[in-house]
Amino acid sequence: AKARHFKWEVSNMFWSPDCEEKVLIGINGQFPGPTIRAKAGDTIVVELKNALHTEGVVIHWHGIRQIGTPWADGTAAISQCAINPEEHFTYRFVVDKPGTYFYHGHYGMQRAAGLYGSLIVDVADGEEEPFKYDGELNLLLSDWYHESIYNQMVGLSSKPMRWIGEPQSLLINGRGQFNCSLAAAHTQGAKQCTGGGNKHCAPVVFPVLPNKTYRLRVASTTSLASLNLAIGNHKLTVVEADGNYVEPFTVDDMDIYSGDSYSVLLTTDQNPSSNYWISIGVRGRNPKTAPALALLNYRPNNRAMKLPAVAPPATPAWNDYAHSKAFTQRILARAGTPPPPATSDRRIELLNTQNKMDGGIKWSINNASMVLPATPYLGSLKLLGLKPTLGASARPAESFGRGYDVTRPPANPNTTVGDNVYVLAHNATVDVVLQNANALAHNVSEVHPWHLHGHDFWVLGYGEGAYNGDAADAARLNLRNPPLRNTAVIFPYGWTALRFVADNPGVWAFHCHIEPHLHMGMGVIFAEAVERVGEVPKAAISCGATATALMAGGDHP
Ligand SMILES: O=C1O[C@H]([C@@H](O)CO)C(O)=C1O
């Protein structure tokens, strides 16, 4: 294992990700940010300089558990103080597990401003992946808005709320086409893209050789959109999800929610004189965004921009949830993976509702919409102890109780704010049931991908309607080969049950990965055995009340 050093400068820059010039957040003059590639067991050292003009920044390493380094998780107000303009901060952490990951901003809505990139961990020297392939293609998927995140954030907190709407474009490796389509010949009313060149929005072309097997690494860092990937004439064999091996299964198309990552194997067994469409479309919301298209270019056919004669594969209907569920439920742990603990010590049931507050709209968990404190939790809990913030004297509710009607808008739509901090005992086995419900409007319930920091969890099962905890619900849980993941979706009007072991002291966010929903309060905090956290680097806690404590000479207890 070795240390891999990176020097990064985060700054605003003009860029045209979908051919329209905007300002985004890039790293070292690049968008997306540089790809980090390492081997399992390596230590990543990122010396970050914040070169934004007037705002703080942090970077979250999505899917990396940060075992023993909770201060490097990169969540503003939770694991560290935001890095101020012109300040440096060094992230140092071990990538312990091979897999497909990514990193992104985790302060306000900076991820949606383009602050993201790929993080790929290969097996350690001398180890082998449990599958074979000849080459790799990397697809980092995102969505893109023409309105700045500042406009978006102001809208979301306005009274009445102004919703951000659907994204203007979908991006593959930071590239999309807003004003034209590669498949105009097959798309009503679209203008043909003239293609290549070195424009920021030049279509992505993946060169491949015939009769080989490629590992596609696919990750989604979308702000809002749930995606579906299909490749004309080719099948996809899923082998990895969120850095964990899964029992291989083969599909024609796959869903990818924000926060998900996958490896899929693809065999180039088609006619090599043609190229093939890679198509990414929107699911789970009535789409207004055109699919993103890229080309699979069979070599030695060197006409990279030769367009397939046929239309791109159609994305399944956005509301065909049966299709989504069928895909999701095929994801199971690879044979030989140890099963989860057979029982749990604690069950936390989290009802997700859309609510009203002071004339605006929030998302709430057990009727409390999460707000973050001025002083980041990791430092404040370690140095100052758990103080009730926001006037909340009690810990948040363990359950939403029985009898809530998930099929209708909330009977009492009003919510309050909460810190939503759940204190977890060291090594407790914790079950979380995420319960979806009807939103404020009648007959609306949306998909929410929930992401846990600091851990993988087992996805024990999914159910329809309200979770009761009865024998029928228990029978829906898979304790034999549930997949380990860090992101799991709740389907409309349904529930999802997760299990994890609280064996990683730290303060971990657990939230909907949809950027505006997190911003509207859709999350909780797990404060896990904070008394066992080692010495927190001062740079991570030199703000707010912890800075005051440090100045008072109160060194680390
Ligand atoms: O949080 C959301 O708000 C809007 C809508 O419900 C109110 O405008 C929407 O589609 C969301 O996902």
UniProtKB/TrEMBL annotation:
A single GO BP: negative regulation of defense response to virus
Subcellular location: Secreted
Quaternary organization: Dimer.
Domain Plastocyanin-like: 10-122, 138-300, 412-529
One GO location term (cellular component): extracellular region
Catalyzed reactions per annotation: 4 L-ascorbate + O2 = 4 monodehydro-L-ascorbate radical + 2 H2O
GO MF: copper ion binding; L-ascorbate oxidase activity; oxidoreductase activity
Major enzyme class: oxidoreductase
Predominant place of localization: secreted
One matching Pfam family: Cu-oxidase_2
Keywords recorded for this protein, A-Z: Copper, Disulfide bond, Glycoprotein, Metal-binding, Oxidoreductase, Repeat, Secreted, Signal
Domain of life where this protein originates: Eukaryota
InterPro entries in the record: Cu-oxidase-like_N, Cu-oxidase_2nd, Cu-oxidase_C, Cu-oxidase_fam, Cu_oxidase_CS, Cu_oxidase_Cu_BS, Cupredoxin, CuRO_1_AAO
Role of this protein: May be involved in a redox system involving ascorbic acid.
Family: Belongs to the multicopper oxidase family.
Gene it is expressed from: LOC100828749
Official protein name in the record: L-ascorbate oxidase
NCBIfam families: ascorbase (TIGR03388)
Enzyme Commission number(s) from the entry: 1.10.3.3
Cofactor: Cu cation
